[in-house]
Amino acid sequence: MDTLQALMTRRSVRKFEEKDVPEEMVRQILEAAMMAPSAGNAQPWQFIVVNERERLDAMADLHPYIKMVLQAPLGIIVCGDLTKEKYPGYWVQDCSAAMQNLLLAVHALGLGAVWTGIYPKEDRVAGYRAMFDLPENIIPLAFAPIGWPAQQPKSESRFLEDRIHYNSY
């Protein structure tokens, strides 16, 4: 799959087959995530791979939009590490780029995932912080349940000419 095809066909997957994801694929996904650009090349991210069934099931109560975690064989939490920031505040952009790389790698490997937001919702941040014993300098940005897709969401163009402006608004 080439890059443009991956960009045009990746969609959020919320239903998964009961089938484990090989550890080598998890490594490839994380390696792709860590290739993301970051401000000053600071790479202020940390990743938590969640693959214990009991923990995944317990996560379903962390916020209302992650019930699909009950079917996913694993998930990855993308966190910002404030001690690794070179330019304060850019960790959100940096970690978002890492999450997008992660999602594209998942898709390229034939897997499915969905980006579920954590930050800046304080209740979600607090819930993840408590469940995963996160130190103060680590802020959970987002969580991606990952697995073999049990659905094939359609890809339609989202190109909107009226959203494009040249040289000024």
Structural commentary:
There is one protein chain. The chain is of the alpha+beta class and 169 residues long. It has one domain (20-149): NADH Oxidase (3-Layer(aba) Sandwich). The chain has five helices and five strands. Strands 1, 2, 3, 4 and 5 form a five-stranded antiparallel sheet that branches. The N and C termini lie far apart (35 Å).
Could you outline the blueprint of secondary structure elements for this entry?
Elements: H1 3-9, H2 23-33, E1 45-50, H3 53-59, E2 74-81, H4 91-108, E3 112-113, E4 116-117, H5 122-131, E5 138-147
Antiparallel strand pairs: 1-2, 2-5, 3-5, 4-5
Rounded mean pLDDT is 97
Instruction: Write down how many β-strands occur, each being a DSSP E stretch of 2 or more residues.
Output: 5
Beta-strand percentage range: 15-25%
Distance between the termini: 35 Å
Can you identify the CATH superfamily?
Answer: NADH Oxidase
**CATH level-two architecture:** 3-Layer(aba) Sandwich
So what's the overall shape? globular
What order do the SSEs take from the amino end to the carboxyl end, as H and E? HHEHEHEEHE
Query: In the CATH scheme, what's the topology name?
Result: NADH Oxidase
- Residue stretches low in confidence (pLDDT < 50, at least 5 long) are none
